[in-house]
Structures are given as C-alpha cells and as structure tokens.
Batch of 4 targets.
Target 1
Amino acid sequence: MKKNFLRLFVPVFSGLLLCGCTASDGVSSEALSTPNEIYINAEAQTEEERIARLDLGGSVLPVLPDVTTAEDNSVLAPSLLRKGDQNPVVMQLQERLMSLGYMDNDEPTDFYGDATSVAVMHFQRQNGLTQDGICGTETWDKIFSSSAPYYKVSKGDDGDDIARIQQRLYELGYLAEASSVTGHFGDETEQAVIKLQSVNGLSQDGAVGKETVNLLYSDEVKANFVSFGEESPIVMKAQQRLKELGYYTGEADGKFGNDTMEALRNFQSFNDQVVDGYLGPSTRQALESPDAVPFALRVGDENSAVTSIQQKLASLGYLNSSNVTGYYGSITEAAVKDFQRVNGLSQDGAVGAQTMAKLESGDAKKKPAGSSSSRPSGGSSSSGGSSSRPSGGSGSGGSSSVGSGGATVSGSAQALVNEAAKHLGKPYVWGAKGPNSFDCSGFVYYCLRQVGVNQSYITSSGWRNPGRYQRISNFNDIQAGDIVVVSGHVGIAAGGGTVIDASSSNGRVVHRSLSSWWRNNFIVAWRIFG
C-alpha cells in the first residue's frame, strides 16, 4: 500500500540533516543527496521520534537510509524545478525522461535547460498536466511512477515535435502538401500515420509512439510514393534532371532501377536531404530548384559511383586497373587531373557534371602515349597506395599534437576539432543542423561539411554504420577527430579523453570528458581522416 508522506523543509549543518530517523522511519536513500527536503512517514512517528537524535558529543546523527519501492515514489527533489536550475536530482529526472523517450539519449547533467523543460512539457501534455515545463511535485511523481507512459502523440496534440513528425511524413509521401506541416495533430495527420503504419506492418492506431517514432528515420521505412521498381513520366523527368546535374549517366527511360536509386541517393547526400533513395516531395522540390547542387566526386568519397569513374579512367589509360577500388584517394585525384588537362577542362581533381559528361561522351581523349602522370602529393602512384581507404598515420595537411601523451592526428582531423570548438555554447535544438543551433547528429553533419567532408545528414542511429570510414571498435583507441557513436547519441572526439557534442542534457554544445557513461553506452567510432 502506498505510504502517506509529509513534506518537511529542514536546514543543513555540516552535511547532516537536522532530523533523526531510524531505518524504519520511511526515509528513502535518495534523501541523503537532497539537503533541502526529505520525506517522513507522518503516520508512523511518535512525538519523541520527531526530535533530532544526538551522539554523546552533541553532534547530530546522520539519517539512515531506508529501502523504498517504485510505488513509494519518494525520490526527492526541491518543490519546483524549472529552467535555469542546477541540482543533482536533475540528473535523475533527465535519465528518466530519456528512458521514457521524451529526451534524446545523452549523458545526464544537473542542469535544467531548455531541452529538459521541453521534455517535461511534452510529458505534461501527454499526462493531462499544465504544460509549463516546470517540474513540480505532481509532475515529478507522475514521471517517476511505475506506470509512467512512454512518449506518444496523437490527434489533438500540438507542439514543435508534431511539426517535425509531420515534416518526415511529408518527405515520405504520407502527407501530400508542405502546408500540412502545422504542428497540430489533426485528422489529416492521423490518417497519414495510419497509412504509414499499414504500409510498414505496424499496429494501426494512428498515434506516434515508440515503434512509429523509431520507424520514421530507419533505413527500413517504406515510403508512399515513387520508388524502386516503378515506371512513370515522373521517374523520367527526375532522371533527366539528375542527368543534367551529373548524377545519372544512363538513359532517361522512366524506369526506376538501381542506377536511378543510386543517383537519387547521391543527389540527396549533396543537397541536404534525408538519404533514403525515394523520390518524395522534398526531393522532387530540391531537384527542381535552380539552386540544386550538381554532382561532384572528390577525395574521401567511397561508393559505386567512384568505382564507375575509376573504370572509365582505367579504360582511357589514366588509371591502373589495380587502383579501381571504389575509394577516391589521391591516385584517383591525380588521374582525374590528367584527364581534365588532356580534355581541356578545369583541373580541380573533382568529377563534376562537366567532367562526368566528358567521361561519358564518345569523344573523350585517351591518355597520350608516353605522357607523364600527375603525382599525388606526398605519396607514390604505385598500385594500392592512396586509392585505398586511409587506415592510419598522418593525413593531408600535416599533423598536430593533441590530447594526452602527445598523440598525433592529421591536420584535417585537427581542423574538424577546431571547427567543433567554434560552436561551443550554441543551443541544442532537436533537428537543427546549424549554424546557430544543433542537435547531436546535426552538429556532426555541419562540422564535417565545414571541413570539406561531403557526409549526408543521418541520425545518431544511422551513424551505427555509415559505410565509408575506418571502424574503431575499441573505446580506448578513440583519437581526436573520430566520430564517437553511443546509444542514441553522437559526438566528435577532441583528444585527451574528451568529446565535443550538442548535448540535450546540457542544452548546448559542450566540451566534456569521455566519461564512464560514454564507455558504457559505446557502440563504435569512425575515423574520418587517417
């Protein structure tokens, strides 16, 4: 049976509560960490037991802990927690909100910032409480109740999180118009969610809970629009535009095959779209935009398009066939420069629309017999070499000493750390990709783009296997410039056992230790630069 508790406020002296209780007084163990407030079982105490107990020297005896159950719900906190507060129990609150899906997974802190306030507000909305973002006793008790519900939104709800869900439904083709992204969960949104759940084999309740939230950004989500296997004028129009921008080299036949999907994914990567290979409303709008970014392959890319380019360069004599690896290294860059020079193109070493068109044309000039090749700076043009993915040592741009023990990293890795450090203190905002605010994956995405890495935007779960970088499986092997992936979160290693990340629990971009929390939640790290 749930106990009846009386909330008392007592002063603190020399770290001891001015109240004495035996182990049967009903005081929870958490009371020791919250000096301003304790719970006392009012029914069980006699008048004598309410008197502070003293030892023989007159000092106040410490409160002894008592074991409580989840039903007692006697985890203690100040009477109100609000934005700007700093208190050790905020860590417990954040950890609980994360476990219930109201906050992104992160290392809990004692700071009650914007993200915590928004998470509390979303919990209050779901539980019929006043949505003020303040954690009072009623909100606290409900959050820590054993029956506290996991995050879920449904018809009638309003909020910025609803708008983000609607935006993804629009991108996936379940909402037909951009104007449907309103932040209000109405009939149209409910029907879109039901259709999403139906197509993807989920229970069709029209609400967005744990399974549906996880599905929305997963690689397995099935869209509701033009996709692989379809044939239509819409596909032909998209192929023509992709060809114009240099992403597609085949015939515009209106058939959505593997080559069209690969071209579409490359386009999405270069144009800040979710890389899912679907021809949805947002992607079609980006394709039709005069500001669409044309195709270009450059050093660091690794995919089937690189393999295709290398094969063409090899057939024309600019690249040894043993260097057809699918990785765009300095040897491939040198071969591209040779091709561009011989064919009268700008020699930037990248394969853009013009270079691609020339490679695909029937009049591309072969490498003249006896001509010397451009040499990749800092390396040889022998077989293998830097057409293979870098696996260690210094990368381009020299090296810098960082972290403890004088560990060295490439200049490019140091540039990434320096870029990350520029944004310290900027606010955390869910879904933001910079430059003035970020979420964790948006922060990594933005910083990589600023140092020339054409990584598409992917969520923290997508960073479990981005498919192009050197995998670091041992937590102890992490070095500056690595992307550190933990359960539900991602950051940039800064050297010396530290990380820079957009932290929901801190409410801003922070530089902090790769603590035991990171170790315990570690999944993998990725070395972007050798």
Note: The longest strand covers residues 489-495.
Target 2
Amino acid sequence: MKLSWIALTVSAFALSACGGGGDSAPTSDGTSTQKPASQTVSGVVATGLPLSGAAVNLACASGSGAATSAADGSYSIPVNGVSLPCVLTATGSDGKTVLHSVLPGAGSSSSNATVQITPLTELLVAQVARQDPAQYVAAFGPTTTVSAADVSTAQSTLTKVLQSAGFDASSVGDFISGTISAGSGQGYDGVLDKLQSTLTSAGVTLTDLSTAVASTTGSTTAATSTIGTVLAPANSACPALKSGDHRLIKFSDGSAQVVTIDATTLTVAMGASSYQLTQGATACDFSLNDTGSTRVLVARSGLAVWTNGSGSTGTLSISMPRQTMDPSVVNGAYNYAALSGSAQGEYGTHNYSKGVTTAATNCSVGFPCAVDTKSPYGHLVATSDGGADWVDDGASAGTVDFHAYGFQNAQGNIVWIATMVGGVGVFAPQTTLSVPAVSTTSAFWQSTVSSTGLRPVSEDSHTITAVNGSTVTRTFADNHTDQISYNNPFNGLRYRPGTKVCTNTSGVATSCKETWQLPLGGLTLAWNGSPFVTPSTYSVSFSVNKPGTM
C-alpha cells in the first residue's frame, strides 16, 4: 500500500524537530520563530463519474479546511499546521451523494497529502471504524486515533472479502492515494464503474454495502458470505429476492434443505428438480410451478415464507439466504421464541457474550415470565454446515439442545432460525422498535398455522389511527381495531393484551386474543392461544409486508 505522504510527513516533522531547516523570521531580540508550514490536502471526488461542485470538508485532530470540487472532481484544501489524523466528507451539490475518506497518521503534518474521496474510501472508512462512516465522522475528535497500519490492514481485509464475494478491487493499490482519472473508465475509475454496476445488479445502495461492511465481524468466511449475499444479483421487481443458495426450513418439524434460486430468471433448483417462479400481481409475491403451486412471499429483509396447500396437509416453510455465521460474535440481548414442536409457546430472552449465554428469562403463553437462575446455561458452537449448535452447559452438559442457521441482511439485521425439539424457533437481537406515527399504513400477506392446519394466504392492511406513548391503535381494512404496545414485554417485541382493547367492524368493544409479535424486517411472527389445552387454541401467524409499506 503506497503511503509515501506519511513517510514525508514523518521526515519533515523530524527535520523540523532537529533544526534541519525551514522558514523562520527574526524577532525583535534577534532570535527567530518557526513559521507554520503550509500544506495542501488534495484529491478527486468521484463515483466513477467526477462529482463536481461537491462541498469537501476536512476535519483533523487539530485544524480544518474546506473546498469545492471542480468540474473534473478535483479539490484542493490549503491548511497550516494541522495535526493528524483527519477525516474528509464530500457532499454532492444535490445533497444526496455523501462520501467519506480518511487521512491517517499522528501529530503535526508539514507535507502535502493526496486523499481520494470515492465509494471505495467510503467502504474503507466503514471497515476501519466498524460503524457508519457518517456517524464516525460526526464523533471524530482530538482523541481519535487512526494509524497507517490500521488503514493498510483494513484495506487488505476489505479487498479480500469483496474479492471472495465476487467484486475485485485489488487492482487499486491504494484506495486513499491511488491515481484516479474520473470518467476515464480506466484503472481506479474503471473499478468504481464496476462497483456501481454490481450494486445496481444487486438491487442495493452503497449505504447498504457500507452498513454490511461495518456490521460484519468475525471470521473472513462469515464476512464473505454476508457480503456475498448483499452483492448477489437480485430480482429487478423484488430486490429482496437474491440469487444463490437459500436454506428452506419446514415449520412443522424444523427439517432443512438447500435450494438454489436464480433471481433474474426466476428458476429454483430443489434437489434433482427444477421449477419456475412466476410473479403475481404485486412484486415479491411469487408462485412455484410445483405440485400445490407453492406461494413464495419475500420480505424486505430477504427472509421468505413458502406455503403449499392448506388444512391438515398444508405445509409452511421459511427461507433465508445461505450464509456462514460466526457464533463467537453473538453478543448482547436476544429475544427467542419456540414457534412449533414440543416447546411451542415458549419465549423469552438470552444474553450472550461471545456466543456464551450469560443470562436468560423464560416465558410461556398464559404464564408469567421468570428469570432463569440455573446457570451455567449453554454456548453456541460453529458447525461445518455454516450454522451453530447450542450446547447445554448445565445439568445436561454437552447435550445439543438445538441447531440454528443465521442470516445477516444488507441493513445489518441478524436473525437465527433454529430447529429445536421437533419444531422451529427463532432468536434475534433485541432492538428498540420505533413507534409508528399516526396515518402510517401497512399492507401485508398473512398465513396462520394452528391445530387445524394451514390457512390459505390472505391479504389485509391497517392504518395507525392513534398513538399513546408506546401503544398504537390500528384500524384494519374491514374497520375493526386493536391496540398493540411496542417494546413489550421486551425490546423488539410487540404485545396485545387479551382484554377489551379491540372493536369489531361495527365499532363495538370486544375482547382480543392475547398476542405477541416479533418483527423481522418486513416479516412479522405472531403467536397466541394456548398449546396446553385440548383442543389446542395455539396458533402462529406469518405476515409479510408488501413492498413500499411499513
């Protein structure tokens, strides 16, 4: 990696410290004082085409500057005596394109520096900072440290991951100071053109890719599989549907198989058979030409619900792009729910530290939640199929309680689907759900599994008609209403009590089924009723939001 300007900075700084020359001016007593050296930070702002008229801002550990890019994307910022490191932000004249870059180092600078500002430097900053570049720049200050070694390591790692995921940027020797001729289609600029076409084919934005780069931690294999999903070709009408291998997990027993989808030709390879997907009247609603005409509903996260038939012979499965997840990076609080099998109706929380469960709260429909005090609990262990086993560390030490497959989408959201005790469970990081505003509308497809079997897919919609703190009133298409509270009983869950918080289609107050909901990026899992009575009243609903709605 060429970082010659850093060497120049260090050399010039050393000469200055040793009295090795430089401008000086006499004082009234005949001595001299050192004049602050004048430096220039310059480069090109480009996305493939030059970004002209962009506002370029430089912020250093000490010192700052600004300039406007020329028609060819070039900029030049004169500065005096700045202290490294520095970050740069280029904002397009339309305010929509925002790119970042970084100038590593430490201490005073007395040499010129070339700093390009491109989508590649945006990704590099995300890799260095492990967070959104805009947030990193906003928090940048005098105590922020960025060494040339840090940047070199980050670029090497990023280049390898991108290359393994199908995008090769290795020909650009240095993302920061490499020579670029914006609009030429050659060298560095040609790589930027290729990146843009790759993003377009994948149906994602640079922000999506940057978010994935920043949020993907753990092994290179895990990072590559996540970035590979983000950059995989997408269906033009339904960008959430990605080409590649997908895990298809059957709801009734947790059995899993791998299917291969070509999102552009809409073909599905399943075992030795090949099928065709046909899009319905709405994007992300597909039917498969298999026996039973399987309906495939794709959520914006990339998860999908597959329903075949109805009643006691109907089947429902959930799919996710096949990825390798590193359980050692599972940290913090997670919500979990056992949706089918002998543990159905159980839910709660797990806290993790590097894949080891450190605390737990157990709940079950119809019963109060209770903190699990029987530690140690268990830990996740990576398996050869890219998933993980949860191994008991307590009374049944060494026993595998469930097997799980993980998936991280372009927005950095993670979900694990587990095959557990003859059924399916799900666990996902706790997040604080935003309460929707009044007039927010959602339209969705929905299917429900109960003791009587699978109900056919139906369509519905609702509008938020009132908000009271964390509780919202929803008015549905047929004019019935309910009230549901957000982040209850835990962050990331929604809860509807089984009291008179609903009205029927005539506006008369009525009781509702007590319901818990776990939203997963456009796919909401909801469970209610009791599996402990005969006949069972327990059911699980799967709602997939239509494109363009919350």
Note: Residues 387 and 405 are 5 Å apart (CA to CA).
Target 3
Amino acid sequence: MDLRNIAIIAHVDHGKTTLVDELLKQSGAFRDNQAVAERAMDSNDLERERGITILAKATSVEWKSTRINIVDTPGHADFGGEVERILSMVDGVVLLVDAAEGPMPQTKFVTSKALALGLRPIVVLNKVDKPDAEPDRALDECFDLFANLGADEDQLDFPHLYASGRSGWADAELDGPRKDLSALFNLVVNHVPAPRQIKHQGEDFSMLATTLGSDPFLGRILTGRIETGTLKVGATIQALSRHGEKIEQFRVAKIRAFRGLGQQDIDIGEAGDIVSLSGMAKATVADTLCALAIEDPLPAQPIDPPTISVTFGINDSPLAGRDGKKVQSRVIRDRLMKEAESNVAIKITDTPGGEAFEVAGRGELQMGVLIENMRREGFELSISRPQVLTREIDGEVQEPIEEVTIDVDDEYSGAVIEKITGARKGDLAEMKPAGAGKTRIVAHVPSRGLIGYHGEFLTDTRGTGVLNRVFHGWAPHKGTIPGRRAGVLISMEDGDAVAYALWNLEERGKMFVGPQAKVYQGMIIGEHSRENDLEVNPLKGKKLTNVRASGTDDAVRLTPHVNFSLEEAIAYINDDELVEVTPNVIRLRKRHLDPHERKRASRK
C-alpha cells in the first residue's frame, strides 16, 4: 500500500481537530453506527476543557489504496517542543488558516519550522462559509508569510483549497459543489511525496524516536517513523544517543501501527510507516533505534531553548497534606523527571537543599498545564513567580523577546499601545485596520513585560481583545520593568474567615477569599488599595450584646471575591510570594520570613 505522512498545522481554534474528525469519518475509519466524541483527537481532559491541542498525536486513514498517516500538531508555541520533533516524521504539511483571521502568530511559528525542513505546504482556507470570511485576503497573507519566512520557489507555488471543516467539505474553487473532502484527500496523495529512504545507510533498520509514552503492561513505548529497512517483532536492536553513544541493546516486544484512532499490532514494520515500539528500558526521545550494524545516529532536530523558569517546591503551609496525597519532595522530583523525559522542551534542575526544583520551559501556559496535570494527580506544590531566562553573548546580557499580535476594537487601541510600549518596554512593529471596527497591532515585547499582562489587557479592552504571542528572538536586556503596584492584605490569624470581618475589610481592597474559607498566618487574602502590604484579621467577629434596636444591625452583603485561575495566580504574585496548589484549592501566600525580615518587609 502507498504511504503518505502529513502534519496538520493551524493556529489555536482555527478548526484543525474538527477537520481531522471529518477526515476520519469520510475515510471509513468509523462504523456507520459508531458513537464518536467530538474532537476525537483531543483525548486529554485538559485539551477538551480548554479547546486546545497540547500533545502531538498521530492517526491513520485509508483513501483509494493509499494509507495517509496524519499528525495533529499543537497550535500554541508553548508546546513547540512537540512540533519540532513531530515535523521530522512527515513529508508534507497541510496549513489550515481561518478565512476571517488569516495566518496568526502560532501559524507563523510552526510554518517556519516546516519550511526550514524543506516541506511543501498545502494551504486550506477554513470556515469560508462564515459571514466575515475573506478568503482572498487570507490567501494573499499566506503567500506574504511564506515569502517573509524565506520559502523557496517550490514552496511558494503552493496549492490551496477552500473548506469548511465543520460541514465536512473542501473544494478547489470557492463556489464548488461543497459535498465532501475528496479534493483534499486527492491533493494530499498527488502533492505530498511518498516517504523517502536515507540511501547511504543501506537497508539496515533505523528510526528516530520522536514521542515517548508508557503502558502499564508494555512499559516504555517510543513512536517514530522508520527511515530505512524493515523490523520484525522479536528482533534485537540497539539505541544510540544523538552523539552516537550506545545506550542499550534490547529485543522488540511489540510493533504497533496507527489504524484509525487506535493502534494495531503488526508483525513487520516497513520504511516510511509511523510505528510504536516497546521492549526498551532506557531509550528516550531524540535517540536513534537501529540495527546492531549501524554506528552513526540519525540527525535529531535541535529544540529551541527554554525562555522562563518556575520553582516547584513542597507545600510547607499550615494546611499542607489536607487535600493531596503526594507531598514529599522525592515524589515531586520523580514526577518532574518523568515529565522532562517525554517533553524535551522542559529542563529540570535541583536547587540547593533539594526541596525545590527549577523547571525551565517555553511559557506560562506550558507551566500551567504541567501544574494542572500534577494537581489532578494528587500533588501539593508551592510555585514561585516565573523568572525569564537570560543569556550572555560577548559580555552582553540578552533576554527573550516575543512577537505579540493583538486584535482589538479601535477605541481601545490607544490604551493597549500605551501599556505595551511604555512600562513594558515593547517596540511597535506594525499597526493596521483589521476590518469590522478592529485594529491589528504587532509589537515585539520582552517576555518579562508580558508576565501578568493578560488580565490587565482584558480589563483595558473590556474583554473584547485577543492577544497572541510567540517567541521572536533574543535582544539586549531592556532594563527594569515595574511589577505589580498594589500591595496585598495578609492574614494575621489561623482559622475560618468570617463574613463580618471580610465585609469590614472591603474598604481596604479586593478580597481573594470568601466566608468560611480556611486561612492562616501569612496567607494573602486580598489586594490592598495602596502600594504597601497590610496585615489584617479576617476572623474578627461582631461583638454581641443583648441590646437590639432598629437600624443598629447592618446586613452583611459581600462583594463577590476574586477567584484566580492557576495561570492568573502565577502571573499575579511578586518575587516574595508563592502560589500554594492542592488538588482542590489555589491559595496565595508570602514566603516564610523570620520576625526581623517581616518587620523590614512591612516597613518597605
């Protein structure tokens, strides 16, 4: 059977996973009466809740005697480590672009990686049946994007289709029959080359491991594309590191190939197919699995370096251990090491003392997803404010810069530009009308300046603005960027918060806790209306007397308190504060200070 390996690239919410659903249905991967969940490829709970793809996943469909392996790539740059590995497995890419929005920053990030690998894209203009769709403008913007990214003539001469993933059709013409996706299937078969073999290594088996999984019965599972030769179940092969060092020799226990949404055991894996192998004990992502006669590893795609770091520590608050079962530092360390093994974009280092771990990654969203997964697994953690990683070149300190693309109503554009180019030290790169009373702003802003900005941005734009960011490059350090201006309200007592006390504290600022919430000394219960921190008593009840008179009893009507999401809490805190994360609760608190330090901090 002929083979084609393709990746689907799209910005967040441009309809990529929905299109894959339709490809699976129309290729006959499901029975007619089979119940299939919407966005079947988003198998992870967090992916379904947030509507984004986090993990790269493969599936396989058959179309007229051709097997097409389809890889669904994440649309967010924070999960770019997944993208860079996965593109080495495919021979072509389908770029899915919303006909109304055009190519967006995350599209640019993944497309630049695909073009650098020499892959020839197919452009699919999705959602052309929406009333605000402008497919011709979106197509022109795609051409401009490819040209700016240094595409060669073959890549610039790309075919394109008009489609509606939700309705399940794709046509070469905008006013086509709009029946099914056969035009897309045929274009993939005709435009994408069959897998090519690396000739100079002969016909011995070789494969580059690109994703790592685990199974309770099979143990470690490595997935990748077979570059050369064939492999049989029971064969003895070896694993080489990217530097050519021999890691281990093992017997292949199982070979599984993607068939529809599931995987199927096969006896022989052939060159070009994407398969999963089990039987290894140490081999991991970016290692070469090959025949014993091969000495040189396959070239592994380099991964962009991490840009931010967060400290994961044990939860040492007075309420530690009440919600979660996994609280010891060694258990946290084992879980983080397991994550670093399967996610090459994350780096873990121990801090002095061994009770906290420095986790470096791509962005706040990637860190937030890791922490959210851990809290659902029963971990309790204390998390520090994200710190941006810098590097030194020729004695000059450089910091990561992000390209921020903002779509905002015209009336709010002034406030947004003032914020990002003022205190946050951004440079305005482009500003143009985006139609329908909106303005598109493109700016290059230091990563430090974007920590904690999203909530402020939503307030400035009354919730109507859309902000997208992607790593742009490195630039000389831009100096001090001011953090949060307001101080916080800190509990001075342990116990359950009282509604009457919180009501009296409302004039001091916004509350982060409600009545009956567990509080303790040093816990942050609100934001002060001034710049200094203030210790308050949220347990102070009303003095009761036996005198009752009309008008002396005020009804306690509390303003709803602020309920932080995990990412909002991490972005909100200052350097001397921590986020306490448990399976059920997110709290903010001050770092533990001795009495002398506390006095000095209160004076400041």
Note: The first helix runs from residue 16 to 26.
Target 4
Amino acid sequence: MTELDLTKERTGTGLRLLRQAIGEHRRGIALGMAVSILWTLAKISVPLLIRQGIDDGIRGDGSLLLWSLLVVAVGGVSAICTGLRRYVAFRNARAVEAEFRDRVYQHIQRLHFAFHDRMQTGQLMSRGNTDLQQFQNFITMLPVTAANLMTVVVAAVILFWLNWSLATLALMGLPLANYFGRRFAKKLHPAVMGIQEESAQLATVVEETIAGVRVVKGFGAEQMRADALAKEADDVYLRSLEAASARAAHLPALELVPNIGLIAVLGYGGHQVLNGTLEVGELVLFNIYVVLLIQPLRMLGMMVANYQRASAAGERLASVLDTEVEIVDPDQPTPLPDVMEAGAVTFRDVDFEYEPGEPVLRGFDLEIAAGESVAIVGATGSGKSTVARLLPRFYDIGSGSIELDGVLVNEVALDELRTAIGIVFEDTFLFSSSVRDNIAFGVPDASDEVIRRAALLAGAAEFIAELPDSYDTELGERGFSLSGGQRQRIAIARAIASDPRVLVLDDATSAVDPTKEHEIRDALGEVMRDRTTIVIAHRAATIALADRVVLLDEGRVAAMGTHDELLASNERYREVLAQGAAKHAKAHDEVVD
C-alpha cells in the first residue's frame, strides 16, 4: 500500500466516525438546520424589505413606517433564531462529545493488557480529551454552515432573478473561492494531524513526569525532563507553524475573493443608476446581498479548518475504537461450581509468549489443591508474575490449558473469574479516595465489619486507627500520603475483602521494611489458612509461609518441595534466594516506611 493509499484509508476512518456521530444525532442536527434555514430566510428578507422601503417609502407614495416596522419584525425573528440556533448547536455538540467520551473510556477499559502495555497513557488522554473537543467543535459549526450555504444559494437565486448581469458579476469569485478552499483543505490536513499527534506526545511527557515526580526528584532529573518537555513543545510549535503557514497562504485569497463581486457591482451598477437603467433601491439591494455573501464565504476557511481538525481527531479516535478486544467472554459462559472446598488450580502444558518468538513459559505444569498455598520462586524473567497474570486471563495462553475448580478459565465469564481471584501486585496502586473506599474497591457494598476484618488480617488496622479520620481519611493521588508498606497492606486488605477463591500475592511484601515484616507475616499466615494462595516472593520468611515451593527456571518447573527441603538440596534455589535478598536489600534503601 502506497503512502497516498494509507493516507486515504486513515482519512476514511475519520470521515466514517464523523458520519456516524452525525447519523446518531440526526434529529437534533436536523432541528438546528431547520432553525438555521428560518434564520437565513429572515436574514435574506431584510434587503428586500429595505429596497421596498427605499423605492416605495422614500421615492414613492408608500408608508415608510410600515416598511420600517417590517424590517424590525423580521430582524427580531432573526435574533431569536440566532440564539436558538446557538443553543441547539451546542446541545448537539456536547451530546456527541459526552457520548463519544463514554464510548472511548469504556472501550479503553475493555481492551486487553497487551494493548495497554504498548499504548502510552498520554496518548489515550489526548484522544479522550483534545480529539473529542475537535469533534464537538465541528458538530457545533454544522447549523452555522447550513445557514451560510443556504444564504449563498438563496442570495444567488434572488440576485439572478433581479438582474442576471449584475448577479454574474457579483458571483464571479465563487469558482476561485472553491479552488482556494480545496487547496486549503489539502494543505491543512497533514499539518493538523501532526499537531494532534505531537500534542499527544507532549501530554505523555507531562503525565509521566507528574506520575513519576518522586523518581525525577530522587535522581535530580528535573532538567532532563524539562528538556524532554521542551523538545515535544518545540515539535508542537513547528507543526503549528505548518498549519499557520497553510492558513496564511490561503485565507487571504478566501478573504479577497468575495470582495471582487462587490467592487464589480458597485462599478457596473453605479453606471446603470447614472444612466437611469437601474433603480437606486435595486443597487442598494444588490450591494447588501453581496455583503451578505462575504461573511459566509469567509467562513469557508474556518469550516475547512474545523473539518480537517475533526477528521484528524476522528482518525485518532477510530484507531482506539477499532482496536478489537482480544480477551472476551465466551459465547456460553460456564459458571464456577459451588463446592465446599473451592480454589483448585491446574496449569497443564502451558506455553506463553508476550512477543512472537520469545517464549516466557514452556510446557508449564502445576496443580494446586483447594486450600493449598504455593510459593513460586525464580530469577528475574523466569515467568513468575506471568503465572499470576494468566490465571485471571489478563492474557490468553498460546497452548495448553488452565483450570479453576475443574472449569477452563477461558470458559468462565470474565467478571466471575476475576471476582474469584484476588490479586495483590508488587506495584501497589491506591485511588484518590478514602481508606474505606480503597479496601472495599472490589465490593462497594461491603459492610463495615468486612472492611475492618480485612484491614486487621492484612496488618493495617493499627496504622489506619492512627490516621486523622481513621477509615474515612482521604488518601492523596496513588496513596502516596502513606508509606510503601502501608499502601501494600491496604492493597492486601482490598484483596481479602472480596473473599476470593484464590489469593495471588505477587511480591506483595516487597515494600515492607524487613524489620517490620513480622507485623504482617502472622497476618498473612492467617489469611492463607484454608485458602488457595499463590505467593510470588523473594524473601525466605514469606516463602516459608507456603505449604509448597515451586522453583521456576526458564519457564519450566525446575524443582518442587517445601522451603526447607529445597534450601537443603537445591543449589539453584539457594542462588535465587540470595539474588532476591540482595535485590530487596538495595530496594529497601530507597523505601521509607
């Protein structure tokens, strides 16, 4: 496919989304068009009334007051329609913006982990904000554009009806306006598309810098991030200059062309008045109509620019909305069985790779009995966290099978599957809400008793009681008002509150100070009792809590046994524990508990 074909295809997706938005709100847009037509008819009627007022009321025997009152009445209709048209236009535009914002947001949430692994947050924020604003700006202009087109058409018909020779002179600039308008659109589109792409890159830099401000300050990298922002800002500036150059090259012509007709009418029509072949009122009428044409033709440039921005925004929105959701519910979901001892997990000959040709798991086999706790240990990159991500179907496996209580996980509805599996990640994320809301995140209707019990089991109850408003204390962004260990204990409480069949602790004690680890180790032991638990850890004390330890090496099970058995018999196991201890000792120097 050539670059031209690719550009046409991308432009087609933007137009498709625009047509869809217009089609879904056609009734509101039709109402705006109807009001615009009424506004146009009132606007067009004024010059005719002025001509009659001049010819009959001033030069003839008619009543000047009558014609004046008619002009006032029609002007009043025009004023009312102006306000109504504006209200309807903005109502339609905001409805489109709100609807598409919901669609984009919901679709982003449904998209699989692999999509979010690749896509930058700033890019998604730009699509859900800036691009949607460009979309609604275009919808806002539709009734205005309809009024302008109606004005041009009706004015042209009236002018030819009155005097075809003067009308020809008045409209002689329209072909030129069409020519310059088409050239303007062709030049402006790539520049506008570039602005929106670069603006998204700029948003990414800002989002990453703010989200990682502690890392930036910790490494004294403020200037480096400022340089990155300056580079992206310069790119936006250069792209904006390209768009400004396109406007500067074409808008003067679009501004000048309508005035050609006005000059021609004044010159030729003035001679006809002097020769007595044309009434003064008719010449004034012609001049008024030509002046009425100037503004709609000037608006052509603005509408072309709005259209190009909306088309570019549509392309970027379509790139997200057209992305297929790869992890979906089965056509006929199988419910998880209601058994006394729930939580049996089986991995059979599982192969998985994030990138083609780079396998992470190779023939991975593991059976975990209901109520059993298993620690998965391995070097960095051995596939430990991948096991935790495959069980709730964050990713689909390449081959093999994964079962929960005898049911294949890809046959279970996603909501039911993920409710049955509680996960505490190493990278703890808390929301800007109260402690209570964060613990009850998975079960919003959880009782106070459930929330307090979960906090107690997670070893969080003591420090929560010391917070200013206890469980009602509002946490800052990402919960950074708490220490790393406190955040992880609330995350553990969040998982416990949902009472899952399987609890996955993905290095969930990594941010806890080793000197305070005993505060939650006993609590974890209580949580893990009689509950299927997968523990991914490096610390020996946490690993020892598990009934069984699985050593993972290069995506396969290399050894299996209790912690003490492997410690005594397996050299590779001892090496992995030593590496993990060194890693966390270094990380501890960077964590303030």
Note: The first helix runs from residue 3 to 24.
